[in-house]
Automatic annotation (TrEMBL):
<comment type="similarity">
    <text>Belongs to the CdaR family.</text>
</comment>
<dbReference type="InterPro" id="IPR042070">
    <property type="entry name" value="PucR_C-HTH_sf"/>
</dbReference>
<dbReference type="Pfam" id="PF17853">
    <property type="entry name" value="GGDEF_2"/>
</dbReference>
<dbReference type="InterPro" id="IPR051448">
    <property type="entry name" value="CdaR-like_regulators"/>
</dbReference>
<feature type="domain" description="Purine catabolism PurC-like">
    <location>
        <begin position="7"/>
        <end position="126"/>
    </location>
</feature>
<dbReference type="Pfam" id="PF07905">
    <property type="entry name" value="PucR"/>
</dbReference>
<feature type="domain" description="CdaR GGDEF-like">
    <location>
        <begin position="293"/>
        <end position="423"/>
    </location>
</feature>
<dbReference type="InterPro" id="IPR025736">
    <property type="entry name" value="PucR_C-HTH_dom"/>
</dbReference>
<dbReference type="InterPro" id="IPR012914">
    <property type="entry name" value="PucR_dom"/>
</dbReference>
<feature type="domain" description="PucR C-terminal helix-turn-helix">
    <location>
        <begin position="472"/>
        <end position="529"/>
    </location>
</feature>
<dbReference type="Pfam" id="PF13556">
    <property type="entry name" value="HTH_30"/>
</dbReference>
<dbReference type="InterPro" id="IPR041522">
    <property type="entry name" value="CdaR_GGDEF"/>
</dbReference>
<protein>
    <submittedName>
        <fullName>Purine catabolism regulatory protein-like family</fullName>
    </submittedName>
</protein>
Amino acid sequence: MAIILKDIQKIESLNNSKLIAGSAGLNNPVENIMITEAPDVEQWITPNEVLLSSLYGFDNLSEKAIGQFMRSLHNHNCSGLIIKTSRFVNEIPQTIIDDCNQYKIPLIEIPKNIKYNDIMLESMQLLFNEKNLLLNQYKKINQQFIQLAIQNSSFNAIVNLLSSLVSNPTFIFKIEDNIASNIIHNDQNTHKLKEIDFTQRRPVPKKEYTNYQYYEVTLTDKSFKLLMVKIPQSQDQLYLGVLQENQILQDVDFMAIENAVNFTQMEVLKQTALNQGLRTYANDIIDDLINGKIASEEEFQATLKHFNLVETSNYRVTVLQALKEEKVQPDYYRDNPREADRVVSQFKLYWPNTVYRIRQNRIILIISEDQQSPEKMQDNLKKILQTLEDTHPNLNFQIGLSETCHPKDFKVYASQALKTLQIASHLNKRNQIFNYNDLGFYRFLFQVDNPEKLRSFVPEDLLKIYKDKPELYTTLKTYLEHNQNAKASANALFIHPKTMSYRLNKIQERTSINFSDVDEVFRLNVGIRVLNVLNDETV
């Protein structure tokens, strides 16, 4: 327990003292005691100090000046006043008495024969003993948490130990959109954090012995207050909470909480490292599975068992990528690992046994098709994309979906899903879900691995414009995409219709393109799609 003014009042040297005013402040905390004989206390006073004074020179002060002195004590959280009378003043000014009552500053009167030195020594001994007691208590608490860590601690063990130390319900939880999600609580705890409005949390002033920023929020029914503190370096906005249900927290309780925060942080880092190691191991296995690099049948069967895959079941390989302004974000999932985890979580809502591999620019997922119709699968994928875009209004997401396959064919169908996404997204950027079977004629692109061979499908006139006149190429591409509607094409390019006509004339002057020839227009469309798929350096 912290030293309060009532404890100071009980020391031997104050046996003959009298409490004159401010009895409502007898529980004020005390951290120091000082002597003052001047009204300029704001220059040196610290919070929670008791002041000793004989009011030397105060008989020359006006009531206004005395009032300013008292307001300064109040503003600096003075814990109490001990005034010696019959030396410089015979009685305490009424202004001081009234203000002590108003500001809840206990006012103790002592006779002139009491020595300041006795009061100072006894008070400091009391404060020293308390500090020493707190230090010993901190050592005991710290040793308990160290012992817990040696015995392989867990979140559950931490909250149970903390609850026993502070005699209150404790939690480890995370907050998303100001709604709490309870991760763990002590064994006897039945409270639900979802009922708390975390938008109303307020910072708690830092104490001398606290290292973290604490917040306090009142429960909806205003019965208790929850003290909460964020766990440092926790990516999931993890918090430690103590519900002050049984008793108000004391100084020694904060020592226990500080230790709990430190050891929870250690547990978070340990679990993060462990999960990272497990993920790296899983990624290596998945890479071998979808790249056909598993050497033996025994190893293949062990891999299927590890990921709960069934050799004879039907699966779809799914590839997802993020786009901003119709451009694929090449490092999005590398730079935003939490967002990658959100994507996986969305898939697991519909396919709990989803197997996944997170790369820097896309996520590869293997989902089961058994007991789910293609229509239901499409519907679930649309729901996932809608949720992702609702939470990421500046991004778009696209999915490439392979045909149905068995685990032994993952290598072929993983490539198929990726190529479907790459080709289809160039054909129609407005769509979000692309099936291999939806590509129709353009599936021929899968058969051509050599860029030189693929380039042979591009008409020479089109390739020449593409290389030499990018502006005319963009005009031609837009014109064909808008069914040769010059006005619609001009609007899409934000140019005047006359400018559009001028550019079309230039195209026909430089080429032998006949827009009325259906076959030729088809070849142009094929060539444009091929150019979309090819990188500039391969053309």
